[in-house]
Specification:
- The strands form 2 sheets. This protein has a 4-stranded mixed β-sheet. Strands 2-3 form a two-stranded antiparallel sheet.
- It has 138 residues and is α+β, with helices and mostly antiparallel strands.
- The protein has a single domain, classed as Actin, Chain A, domain 4 (Alpha-Beta Complex).
- Helix content is 36%, strand content 28%.
- It has 4 helices and 6 strands; from the N terminus they run αβαααβββββ.
């Protein structure tokens, strides 16, 4: 019996997800992750966000415990634009899921208290919602 390397497992998973409609995006670190999130939220909501508006969105997303954050993702955010107008920002389209943007990347490195590298990350509208750690069979 032959075993696949972790890299082969990872590449095969990404290839399969791309064949199912996920777009591959190269994201190496937190800065690229945030830039991708901004672009995807702009596409999803058909809007252009300034840096200060995007900062308000990040603050909104970064509140509460895991259950409260899940609710935030299901709801819409009432955002005051820099010019004074108000708009709703939708994070995930739950009624018409196929209108969401699905992406996949591999080997994202995030540095905080520890340096973490994730094998495969799945995104919906730029939000990194699933991280997969692959292990080879021993």
């Amino acid at each position: 019996m032959t075993t696949e390397s972790e890299q082969t497992l990872e590449n095969n998973l990404v290839k399969q997800l791309v064949s199912l409609g996920h777009n591959f995006v190269k994201i190496r670190d937190e800065n690229e992750l945030l830039a991708n999130l901004k672009i995807q939220l702009e596409k999803h909501n058909n809007i252009t966000l300034t840096d200060s508006e995007f900062s308000k969105i990040l603050n909104h997303l970064n509140k509460g415990n895991v259950f409260e954050r899940a609710k935030i993702l299901r709801d819409r955010m009432y955002l005051q634009k820099d010019g004074g107008d108000f708009v709703y920002i939708e994070f995930i389209n739950q009624d018409h899921w196929c209108k969401n943007q699905f992406q996949v990347t591999q080997q994202v490195t995030i540095e905080g208290n520890y340096k973490n590298r994730y094998d495969v990350t799945l995104f919906i509208n730029g939000l990194p919602l699933v991280q997969i750690e692959l292990k080879k069979e021993v």
